[in-house]
Every structure is written in C-alpha cells, then in structure tokens.
Amino acid sequence: MGKAQKYVLLGDATYPLQDWILKPYQEEENLTQRQLRFNYRLKRAHSVIENAFLRLKARWQILLKCDDCSLELLPTLVLACCILHNICEAHDNPFNQEWLEGTEPTELPKPCQPAPAAMEDGQAEQVRELMCQYFESCGEG
C-alpha cells in the first residue's frame, strides 16, 4: 500500500487496538463489506496460527511440558523446535496426524473485559485501515 509497516500481533476484540496489535472491527457496529472481509481474513489468519502451534506441539511434545524448564530457556527451546520442524519439512519427513491425538488445542488466557477505549492508540486505526485496504485488493479467499 506504499507505506512500510512493522510486524503486528493478531488479537481479538478484548485487546486494545495498538499499532502492533491488530484486532477485528467490533461486530456490534454497522460494518461495511470491507470491514466484514477484514474481520473474516483476520479470523482465518488466527486459525492458521492456532493450527501451526498445535502441529508444532504435536511434533515436539516437549512443548507440552514447558512448565518444568526455566523461563530463560523457553525462547531457545521454542526456536529449536521451529528450526527442527523446518528441517523435517525440507527433508520430506511428513507430519503424522496421529501425533495430534495427544495434543489438545489449549485456550490461552485472554482478558475478560474489552480494553478501555483510552488504551487504544489513535495511529493504530491507520494501520488497521491500511490492512483493510490491502485485504480488499487481494480479492476473495
């Protein structure tokens, strides 16, 4: 869209809109088709991310037991699992669907109440609007 953007995290409606947290438009508002398409694409991206983490935990089940390792080690452990996963994929070592049997999708803790409007960043709406325009230009899917 002609403007350099930094990376963003995907959040749901309970998170404050920040220039680094992308969240959907509120459903109770009268949304345009473009905003509905944006929300749909955001939900799809979120489900892809959830599926990727589920597969990562299924292949590397040590990630299911990370509560017994130090917090300092955790980023290195996750990165090592990601690298090993990519090596497996590059060498045609397929993912075994049976691994998913021992892995349940976990609901990560989220805020219970929506963030107050005062926590929202005014510049973040511009980021969301740019992403909305980008999704619209990508066509259906």
From TrEMBL:
Its cofactor is a divalent metal cation. Residues 5-86 form the DDE Tnp4 domain. GO terms for molecular function: hydrolase activity; metal ion binding; nuclease activity. Its main location: nucleus. Keywords: Hydrolase, Metal-binding, Nuclease, Nucleus. It is found in: Nucleus. Pfam families: DDE_Tnp_4 (PF13359). Belongs to the HARBI1 family. This is ALP1 protein. It comes from Jacana jacana (Wattled jacana). The gene is Alp1_0.
